[in-house]
Every structure is written in C-alpha cells, then in structure tokens.
User: Fold these one by one.
Assistant:
Number 1:
Amino acid sequence: MQQRMIVHERGLERFNPLERVITYDDFDRGFNGWLDLTPNYVREDYESFDSAVDLSSWAPIQLSSAPMRFAASHGSMEGTYSLKLTTAPVAAPHTQPPADGSMGVAVKRLSRFGDPSRIQIETWYSYTPVQDRIGLGEEDIRAFGFYFDIQDSGHRYMPGVRYVNSLDGRLVKRWQYWKATEGVTFEDWNFGVENGWCKVGIDNLWYGRRYEDGSTDGYQWVPGGEQDLLYNESPDKLNWLYLRLLVDVRKREYIELQSMDRVFDLRGIQPTLADRYRSIDNLINPIFFVETDTARSVNLFLDSVVYSTE
C-alpha cells in the first residue's frame, strides 16, 4: 500500500491552515506578490475614475527590518523582514472621508483555484506609530484590518474585518465586520459623486458615510467585539499578534474571526452582495490596510501570511 507523506515548513507550525495551503508568505523571502493597491489608470492622461477619495495617495508598502528610534532594527517575529504598511502624517476627522495619504493598503492578486467551499487568511502582525514624539502613541492609530475582494459567477462582495482602535484620541478597541447598512444610496456611498465607480458594499475602507460613534455605512459592529489588544508600553516595542478570518464562499457568508485566542462566531452573516464587475470573474484578492487617526504616520507590520482553502 502506498503511503503519502506531506511535509510542511516549520514556519507553518504557528498557523492553523485549511487542507490546501495556496500561499505561505514569509517576507524574509521578498514581497511574495504583495503590492500597493492602486486605482485603474485607464482614462485620458491615465486618469482614474471620479472619486471623492484620492486612491493614488496611499504610501507604498515596504520590506522592513522595523528600524526604531532606540531599538535599532527590531526585526520580524521570526527573521529580519516583515511587510510594512504605513501612512502619511495626515488625518481627517473620523466622521469625514479618509484624508489623502492617511491610509496604507497592500493587496495580493489571486484567483479562484480548486472550487473551494471555504477560504481562510491568517497572519501574525504588529502595529505602532512612528516614534517621532514623546508619549505612548497608541491613540494615534485609528484602525487596521483585512478583507477579501471576491467575484464569482453571481456577485462581487468583500467579507472583511476592521479593528477600530482609536477615534479622535479616544481608545475604542472594538471589531467591526464589512457589511453595508441597508438603504444606503449609491450617491451617499460615493460621497455625492454621481458617476462614482464603487457600488454599495464595494471598497468599504474608503466609501460610505462615517458617524461620530465610529459606526459607518460600510461596517457593522461584531457582537461582543470589544478586545483590548496587546500594544506594549512604547512605540519602539513590537509584540506579534495572531489574526484569522474564515469565509464560506459557497454560501457567501462569514464563519468566524479569530483574534489571538478569542473566536468571534459570525455564522449566518453575509457581506453585501453587489452586481458583478466586468472582466474579474473568479477574483479572490486578500487585502490588508491601516489608517492613522492624527497627523502622525502609523505602521502595520505583517510577519507572515497564509492563505488556505478547502
């Protein structure tokens, strides 16, 4: 009788992937296909579509050894380099659209493979502001998160999560999931731009009105989603945290979010299902983002990422 032996890299021991690992990205080996998320430069003079948010203003991602003001090179969780998402030192009030440069976004462009029923992302990450002033700095990080950009034969949709860390200097520390509020109009979603590109429920990280309590047209609060994540006591000290999001792509529903040892049951919740876009059937793009809350650059470091399916 033949026996099949599957050998995994030791680095996968800190993950809990589904039965088929599609990509395992250790950033000591390079960018691994992750790149800046940019708009579509297809119009006259290579301009993009009309938008109230400048989608070309986000800072470029970097391979980083995490140099710090006092700690020299911090390194990654295991190795030297992590993938660094950063922002410019600029922010709008949290009730307004994101200011130009106030976010950092990284995407990996993939496609559906093997007709999966479930897909999952996992990462070990850390977050901190640039140590350009005294103080703890935790309150300067507005939010960070992850989402999938998916298009199948029927719909385009974006299941994702957002950790609201701080709003105007007030710590919130609470999870949201991506789902547009019922009844939001196309014009409201695009901040009044009549010929905007994004349908309701698409690109929630930029679009949809934002409100004083931290709710938005694009996010809903995770039930019982309050969580005090480990930040540490100084901006030059990184602690690595675990994140996992599991999605049912047959039902087009969330299954669960795991943040460190807490698991949030999201079964029965659907992200907003939009009509299909042209030429992107079978799209499955994983995307991470970070947003600053003040006139201070903030960083999201990804040590490694695993995308798996079954």
Note: The chain has one helix and 18 strands.
Number 2:
Amino acid sequence: MNRLKIGLVGFGGWGKRHYESWKKIPEADVVGIYDPAYKGRIFQDSLDSLFKIADAVDVVVPAQSLAEVAIKALKSSKHVLVEKPMSTNVDEARRLLEVANSHRSQVAMVGFIERFNPIFLRLHSIIGQLRGPGRIFCQRSGSPTLVTKQTGVLKDLAIHDLDLLRWYLGEPDRVTIRSKEDFYLSQVEAKFGDIEAILISDCLGPKIRRWVLTYPQDNTFAYFENNRWRLYMNYREVPVEWYMPLERELRYFTECTKECVQPTPSIYDGLRVLEIIEHAEVHGQRY
C-alpha cells in the first residue's frame, strides 16, 4: 500500500493535535514538519524542502498565514488541507479559491471539523425531517486564545456554527451581526426561510458548546460535556457512537486524495462563510 506522504506546516497546539491524529491513520504518514520555532530530525528548514518530500500539505499555521501557505502548496502541485478560517479576509480567500480552481488535479479542503462530529452528522439527517417554522440557538464560549485575538470570535468560533447552518439549510436570506470587541463577544442572527437562528460566541469562559432546536412538533438539544457531545430529541437521548472528529476529518481527506475526489467542505465553502460574516448587516461595534 502506498501511504500518503503528509507535510505538516505549523507545530503549535493545534498542529501537535493534527500530528498525533495523523499517527492513527495507516494510509498516511507524516514525512516532515515545517515550523521555524522547531528543529530536529523530522523538521524541515523551509517550505520548499517540505514540499519536495510530501504528497499533501496540512496547513495549521496562524490565521493570517493560512491562505498564503495553502496557495504555495497548491502551486507546488500538492494536495492541501487548510485549517479554518482559511483566511482572515475575503479577498485573500477568493485568491485561494482561484488557485484551487486552476489546480483541479489536486484536492483542496478547508478544515471545518464540526462537519465530522458524529453529533452534527446525525443532526444533518434530523433537521431534514423537521417541519418549520423553527428556531435554532447556538452557543460557543471559551477563554481567549491567540487565534481569537488574531481573528475575533466571529472567524474563530461563530464560523463553525455558520458553516453548519449553511450545510444544513442552504444560503441564508439575511444575516445581522452585533459584536463588542472589548469583550470578545458576538451575536449573529440569521434567517433561512422559516428558520431563524441566533449564534452567541464569546471568550468570557468557561467552555460551553450547545445547540437548541425548537420546532412546532419537536425539540432537539445538543451539548458538549466531558470531552464529547451528547444529543437529545424530545427529551430522550439519541444514541450516537462517539469518535474524535479530527481523526475522521483527516481520514476523509486522505480518502479524497486517493480517489481524486474534490471534498466537502471545499475552499468555496470556506469563502462563503467568510463572505457571510464580512457582508452581514452590522449593528453596534464590530471588529
């Protein structure tokens, strides 16, 4: 079996988690890492040297450098998995999409990890059966991180839930944002036909993750506890086999490269969520 040769760019906290997850995938092998802060046997001294030994590049660098590295990898004929938010601005994201579209023989994917969360995969099938009008409440709270300080809570936290809502319901009819920079706090209101959603994202701690879906005949509730999600529908727990979403995401990316299939979430999906955030109607102070 020919194992996919992975070049990992970035070895910070999340990069290390990617590295450990790649070890669990027998079809792939991390052959090198580039991060200027590290030296050692597996670490390469430049992106070019990493690209020479890799088939695919996993980009886990600070947000302002994600698109730049992904573009360089695609132009070097490498498959690319780039972490969200993929870029810190729409113009750069559009440039990445242009490059990806001109290199269709390579797989290009954005790392919206929640699409590989078994709870949200189950919700995908549940939402398709619900009859509106509906109300969806999403909350992501946590402590301030470097990524949040670089991008703001909208592109660090809210972006996950906006991507999921778009995946479930299609393009929104209207999006309104209220945010307060000093408190790393945002509220997004979105309308999808007869479905209204409110997304709260903040870095005020402690860590909270939850979805509440209220429909005329059904109530669904998902929340994060003890390092995993749980799902309830009409007050009964929905049995869902838990697995780590990151490992499933990396497996899926590997399968796409082997089968020469363009994945979802795509670079276009990453661009659309950034466009939704940047083009939303704004009330109050905004990043």
Note: The mean pLDDT is 93.
